[in-house]
Specification:
about 400 residues; mainly beta; 16-stranded antiparallel beta barrel; 5 helices
Amino acid sequence: MARSSFLAYLSAATLTVAGELEFAESLSSEPQSQGNFWADLAEGQLYKNKDNPWISSVKVEGRAHYQAAWVDGNDTDGNGFSGDFEEFRRFRVGTEIDFLTAFEVSVGVNLVDDERYEDGDLSMGVEDYANAYLRLSVDKLFDLPFLDELEFTYGRQKVRVGYEAHRSSNELITVERSALSNRIRGEGSRRTGFLLGAEKDDFTLNLGVFSHDRSDFVGSWNHGHFYYGSLQWDLSKQWTLLIDGIINEGQGPDEALGYDWVTSLSVLYEKKRFGMSFNLAMGDNGDARNQVFDEDRQGAFYGAVFTPWCWILEDRLQLVGQAQYQISDESEGIRLADRYLIPFHDAGTAEVNNGRGDEHFSAYLGLNFHPWKGESRVMVGVQYDDLQTPDGNLDAITTFLAFRTSF
């Protein structure tokens, strides 16, 4: 099916399913599980009836994220540079259908590819798939005395390593994820794989195997694979512990990770108006076996991110801070996030060593304003970056303005 016709097909299919469900419901003697219609609709709930054994829920979700940035700094030659950027960061829609009591299918598509920050083009339409998976919830079929939940998921899905990756882009309290988070998530955090999820009391365990294939939809298994594990422990209502890890299978071209292995420890604290997260990570960039042929980009890397926040006005105005530090054994073993310093290298307007170095510090301070309850918010932030490279020191200040909305 052509990408340009996908949304039309999705809309028609959703309307058809909704119509059939309404007709089926009118014939059923079982009462529908009622909620607040308008509240459900505002949250993308088109249909919900837990007593329907065929299709119990139809939801749609979407998000639109726009942002701008202004950069001013000194490059590795000591020369000043500056620039400004704007982009549609995300524009995504998707649907989620629960059927046959225990099954869920989820498909989401990205509708914008804005590469203007890299001196590229802005294109609209179905660009690729954010997710496309089928999930079976075994606990909905059988009484499992030893587990609260047991799920099997196959397809294109998000790989979550580090606390920031465990949060949806709708929930991020900084405009961009930290450079360390981008690093340990891999070069592409959405891959085709098989994931087992289990939950018991205060523990949640996820184990999976994923393909390196970078296909836009559900990928093949012809490009190698990696193993993934994650354990969450809710120690109390305030404290949560997260342990994540990835091990690369290590054969063939690595198109998903860009490293050999990584492990991450995250701690989250939340109480009333205050909260903080701390993420400690370490890994190994790999070597020629992982297609890392430049010795300066091999070896171990380490990092930490500390993110405190507080609500100045409850549910309305939030103050956020973040401090990050990362270091590597080799002279180019770490890299900045793609936005917004590396584009100066691509454009040839400043010497930033393509954002690579052996020591990086950043500090962020921002305000998030929620005009009404929900996920919509306006974000402003200022970030300072200092990167040590083989060619000299790079430092810059980036000012962000962003708007996020979703349902």
